[in-house]
Amino acid sequence: MKKIILITIILFIIVVAGKPQAHAGTDANIVGDVQCGGEHVPYVTVSIDGTTIGTSTDATGHFQLIDLPIGELTVRVSGIGYKSVTRKVTTKANTTEEIKFVIEEDRLQLETVVVTADRNQTNRAEAPVVVSSISPELMVRTQSVNIAEGLSFTPGLRTETNCQNCGFTQLRMNGLEGPYTQILLNSRPVFSGLAGVYGLELIPTNMVERMEVVRGGGSALFGGNAIAGTVNIITREPARNSFSVESRLGAINVGGREGSNTKADAQLNVNASVISDDRKTGGYIYTMLRNRGAYDANGDGFSEMVEMENTTFGFNAFHKPSSKSKISLDGYRISEYRRGGNMLDHLPHEADVAEQLEHLISGGSLSYDLFTNNKYDKLNLYVSAQHVARGSYYGAEQDPNAYGDTKGLTSSVGAQYNLNSDWFLFAPSTTVFGIDNTNDNLHDVKLGAEGEKNTTLADQTVNTLGTFVQQDWKSEKVNLSLGLRYDYYRIKDTESVSDDPKGGVLVPRVGLLYKLTPDLRFRVGYARGYRAPQIFNEDLHIDLVNATRVETRNSPDLKQETSNAFTASFNSVFDWGGTYHDFLAEGFYTLLNDPFANEYALIDEDDESRGFYYERVNAEDGAYVSGINLELKSLFSTQIETQLGFTFQTSRYKTAQAWGEEDESVSRNFMRTPNQYGYATFIWKPTHHLNASFSLNYTGPMDVPHFGLSADDFEGAERERVETAINNGYIIEGERLERTRSFLVADLLLSYDFHLGKETTLEFFAGVKNVFNQIQNDYDRGMYRDAAYIYGPSQPRTINVGFRFGNL
Questions:
Q1: pTM of the entire structure?
Q2: Which three-class secondary structure state does DSSP give residue 797?
Q3: Distance between CA atoms of 281 and 25, rounded to whole angstroms?
Q4: Alpha carbon of 198 to those of 177, 178, 195, 542, 795: distances in Å?
Q5: For residue 6, what is the domain's CATH number?
């Protein structure tokens, strides 16, 4: 994989360096400036529709486009926070035209361009499905270090921690667990199952231009496994010559409970981009270094938050061979070490409990865009890949046999064509069609010890060949989108006892937008989805319960799971007394057929002391999730803005499912799924230099299983130790379904910046996360704890200080 990436980069450099930069100079130029409210606007994009030609305004709000094609061109000005404006201009050889643009603010970001709605660039207000766009500014204001933290400030989304020993997190969307959500990198499905276990914490926010979220199955054209929805992580691209440096130091658990410890969390981010004078070639690089100590909440010597070391490096580059074509190349390399349990300064097998992971993730993509005619029809060809190498240890009681080695390679190759028509049947339309193939190879080995042979636990290849077509119509009152995708998957697992699953799935989707008024919009949608009976990311995490390894295995009879998702929403934009508001009410209902569920199973029916595992089976009679997402964005003035989001939902099986060993350990409720959760952000800008932000995150009560010990399962000295632990309240006895309390986490951030010239800014900031130190108060203690019994906020009260420097 390393050789492939290196060769690709070398070839790209050769192409860029060898390509003649000069072309038939027309000396047809456009110069001008962009203003809003009487002031010049810096760093907004000025482009020519239907071409790859573009630039940005400089620090004074001026721009120039040189050597343009001859004839009538459409010049577009766009930027985050501003409404897009176009103007027709007829260029002539050896002539310079001057244009002055006046644009309006779009502080509610209604006209933000998104790509996840229908595999095509679309104005967010005109998209047939609701698309939430998470900006870098929101991630900065909420002190989000990685994307896992930033996603919690979007309706219907909740990030949770599932293990005290390794910090395993997952994203739940609309009440469904992690594997139901499709994670895309730059619209490509290469975020593999192996990367998905810890991947959301591995991607730093300085790598991301924005994140687009589509809830429900509205983005089914990207793949049928987008049952709960899709998160599209769009990495940064070079737009101008720029640089920035950010350094942050955090103190974890300031003023914590007696017996708990305080640890440091240090981070350094560096970003830079450069663009050639002719705007045909550009590059962007980013890097992050992070070092975080382990946090022990109750003084028992075992971690509740793991220690972590992270190094991330990446780049994004482009070259435009002509005014109609563009080659893009991006790559990244993420190295991470994490360790939890106790005796962290010892080798893992010398500790009472240890989970240690070392990840090395390398990935990249190469794409080619070509505008084929004057109707803005476009061809896109792409190839992308991600390789993950993971060394692991999941073990207790100084077990030398708990080491593992896992490797995964995911690749995707495809082609897409966008065809525009001035009129088709009853309105102007766009047709999108294409083909893609995704291959995911996973190899998981348990390493031998003391002369034992290595044991292969999984050797699986999943290949999915998909074709898709979509027809979009846009009119003054109605936008309609009809899409159809067909996937044929084939799963080959040399370690499986069952036949290799394969099958074809037809995935339709329908989206309708009806504009009741220019400011009141109604949307309704339907999409089908599926999950193939393969190994999922959570299967690669091994719980340590009562000092016993607990794995997840697929049943030999596991069948494909399918879904039918329905959504309906109202979106109203209104002003009230000089204030501006954007309100969204979005209802959802997803019916799951043959849904996957976990059953408790003993490793040895005749010897309970050998422990148990979870077996993934198809639940009887199906399941459903339903609810409503509410969101309100408000601009009270140029100084004050707020955003509120809340979700009410129900997630239930139609018949009770077993979650434990006992006969009475059954429930219809989905585990770890609250019926209410939400967030709020408040931003105050009292002066041009001072910024203040306050955010809240609420999680309601939920059912969490707990597997405790029973002294009857032990003898002698071991029995006495277990009885002492139970009597002292270190562990909860027996098997219980606990109803958790609710949590409200508050964060506060203050920043002040100094302008050092026209382009350079120095900003200092200080913040507190989890101001009121809302954390779980009933963690298990010691070696025999149930490490999966964790449900509260993952981070205690933390103080952050730092600075940012650059042309921000």
A1: 0.89
A2: coil
A3: 17
A4: 14, 11, 6, 13, 16
A5: 2.60.40.10
